[in-house]
Write a structure and sequence with these properties.
- By secondary structure, this protein is α+β, with helices and mostly antiparallel strands.
- Among the domains are: about 5-50 and about 160-205 and about 250-285 and about 390-430, FAD/NAD(P)-binding domain, CATH 3.50.50; about 450-570, no CATH class.
- The chain is built from 15 helices and 24 strands.
- Strands 4, 5, 6, 7, 15, 16, 17, 18, 19 and 20 form a 10-stranded mixed beta sheet that branches. A 6-stranded mixed beta sheet has the order 8-3-2-14-22-21.
- It is globular.
- The chain starts with a strand and ends in a 5-residue tail after the last helix.
- Bound molecules: flavin-adenine dinucleotide.
- The site of flavin-adenine dinucleotide (FAD) has 40 residues, from helix 1, strand 9 and strand 20.
């Protein structure tokens, strides 16, 4: 029997702390609902970490006549640049045009004009058409053969999508939500044909000396022997959200709520199938992969968005995090999303196409720093080519259980409007009048204006710059830790300049439970050129010294991190 550890009844349980689940939890908590958010891994460790990281209207969707989606996305792009300016920034994109391209100059120009019209009233500049010489001035490394010019337009980039998800979860907690990570939902509880709660498996007891942000359930679960979470976690092949293994170090729990939202991304059908009643298919995922390479010969200053010769799909070459992000692919994927990984053909395709567009690049597998792949949680359709499957979102009611809804499709870009729609629906189902949604103007935690506390230490410019880029206005909280203990000022990763205080901050104030959470989705050190491998021991020593980790926990966590990361170096 699972233990019912919650005395309180929740209004809504959200399964999955990706961008959609975290966004729904935030909006629901801000409107006064009692929310429980559960994830089988860390916050943002699913698909939301594996995207192209664009906050965009979706120029390509115009080809499929998705005007409504483009308009909504452009509105949300504007909103996210306002509520999270430290994370979502304008991105200048160059679209080179070639003689034999499937999309001719006039088609591209018409697309640009339509995009501008749909962006009316927005803050980003309109497009410009460039001649061949202007194009080459701006991107001298481009292949000149048959070049006809280029279009330049603006969208936005969320360099650290992981932190966009995190800040939504943190804001949800600030508004009273309970967030539990490494908590896998196994089953629905049912009464009179209605869902009334969930049963879930959680890894046992994080260390008792780690102070939790949320003083509710996480604290209750935090009592217990020091040992960390690593032993019961098995890394997935590509090193994404690790899988919970059954064993002595897991606990079974249940929680009640009259409404359950299944926001498990590409795992939605797995979650729905858990009770053995529902085998219908909602997700028809497609896999997309990216390569990360260091700056190379002819590497562009601006993002390049260009048609691939092989299949005429446009792909991106994006300056990102000091390196280049190249992608993506779009391939039907029916297997377990936990086992998604890049295939040799995808690597060949992305290298070949990049080398064609930028001849001096001469990229080979040896230059790949790491790769990542994800599954787009798209609606299931038969016989459609992958590119034409809609990127719209749908809130699907279960055919078997009342008050159970699944979030299908969507994009990082439109998570806020999806959350608003979902929370409106929750109020309707609860039979309560809905308070106004305020997320369109409510700044995320790192964008909330804060007064500088007296006595706060002065940080070197490079450190201040780094902290502002990652934590926004919350960097003053990191600085406070240094004011309290100046030894936390020490840089533990030379490449990124990350400092010891950030490790402490991740565990004490940002719901991190494992070293992997800390490096990959809090400090972002795990996205550097070596996936943080050069910094892993130093980060663990900081946790040992300042958070009281035992030697055995240090060994477990560093070993688990190395194993998790090994999946990303597949070339
Ligand atoms: C290659 C690629 C490129 C993309 N590029 C862009 C882009 O540039 N811009 C854009 O706007 N969008 C982009 N997207 C789309 C976007 O990333 C996704 O639509 C979005 O991240 C989905 O978020 P989600 O919260 O629904 O799912 P996820 O982020 O996958 O979250 C689902 C969560 O559910 C959890 N979960 C699963 N099963 C359980 C369970 N049993 N119990 C508890 N928790 C569970 C998982 O651990 C996971 O954290 C891209 C997607 C891909 C794959």
């Amino acid at each position: 029997m699972p233990s019912e550890i919650f005395n309180d009844q929740f209004d809504v349980i959200v399964i999955g702390a990706g961008i959609n689940g975290a966004g729904i939890a935030r909006d629901a908590a801000m409107r006064g609902l009692k929310v429980l958010l559960l994830d089988k891994g860390d916050i943002g460790s699913g698909t939301s970490s594996w995207s192209t990281r664009l906050i965009h209207g979706g120029l390509r969707y115009l080809e499929y006549g998705e005007l409504g989606l483009v308009r909504e996305s452009l509105r949300e792009r504007e909103c996210l640049m306002k509520i999270a300016p430290h994370l979502v920034r304008p991105l200048r994109i160059l679209v080179p045009m070639y003689k034999h391209g499937q999309r001719g100059v006039w088609k591209i120009r018409a697309g640009m004009i339509a995009y501008d019209v749909l962006s009316l009233g927005k803050s980003l500049p309109h497009h410009r058409m460039l001649t061949v010489s202007e194009t080459l001035q701006q991107a001298p490394g481009l292949n000149r053969k048959d070049l006809l010019g280029a279009a330049v337009y603006f969208d936005a980039q969320v360099e650290y999508a992981e932190r966009l998800v995190l800040e939504n979860a943190l804001s949800a907690v600030e508004h009273g939500a309970t967030v539990i990570t490494y908590a896998r939902v196994d089953k629905f509880q049912i009464q009179d044909g209605k869902v009334c709660g969930v049963e879930f498996t959680r890894l046992q007891s994080p260390p008792s000396n780690v102070q939790r942000l949320n003083s509710g359930v996480q604290d209750e679960m935090s009592r217990g022997e020091e040992g960390g979470l690593a032993p019961a976690l098995t890394p997935t092949p590509q090193g994404s959200s690790p899988i919970i293994r059954e064993g002595s170090d897991v606990e079974h729990h249940s929680a009640s709520a009259p409404i359950v939202i299944n926001a498990a991304g590409p795992w939605i059908d797995q979650v729905l199938g858990a009770n053995g009643q529902d085998s219908s298919r909602r997700i028809g995922g497609t896999k997309g992969s990216h390569l990360i390479v260091a700056p190379f010969g002819g590497a562009p200053e601006n993002t390049i968005y260009v048609e691939a010769e092989t299949d005429r799909r446009p792909f991106f070459i994006i300056p990102w995090n000091g390196n280049y992000l190249i992608g993506t692919t779009d391939i039907r994927y029916d297997a377990d999303p936990d086992h998604v990984r890049i295939e040799a053909e995808e690597i060949e395709y992305l290298l070949r196409e990049t080398n064609r567009v930028i001849p001096n690049a001469q990229l080979t597998r040896a230059q790949i720093l790491y790769t990542y792949s994800g599954v787009r949680p798209l609606p299931f359709v038969t016989e459609k080519d992958e590119q034409s499957i809609t990127r719209k979102h749908f809130i699907r009611a279960s055919q078997h259980l009342d008050n159970l809804f699944s979030i299908v499709g969507g994009k990082l870009t439109t998570y806020r409007s999806l959350a608003e729609e979902t929370v409106d629906l929750i109020f309707k189902r609860l039979g309560r009048s809905k308070p106004a949604c305020t997320t369109i103007q409510a700044a995320l935690p790192g964008a909330v204006a804060r007064r500088r506390a007296a006595g706060l230490c002065e940080l070197p410019e490079a450190t201040s710059h780094r902290l502002a880029r990652i934590y926004g206005t919350r960097s003053s909280e990191v600085a406070q830790l240094i004011s309290d203990d100046p030894s936390l000022n020490k840089v533990f990763d030379q490449e990124t300049g990350a400092i010891a205080a950030e490790v402490v901050f991740a565990f004490k104030h940002e719901l991190a439970q494992t070293l992997s959470d800390c490096l990959l989705r809090r400090t972002m050190v795990g996205l550097n050129s070596t996936c943080g491998l050069k910094a892993v021991d130093a980060a663990a020593s900081i946790a040992q010294k300042h958070l009281g980790w035992s030697a055995s926990r240090v060994a477990q966590e560093t070993g688990a991190y190395r194993m998790e990361i090994s999946g990303r170096f597949r070339r």
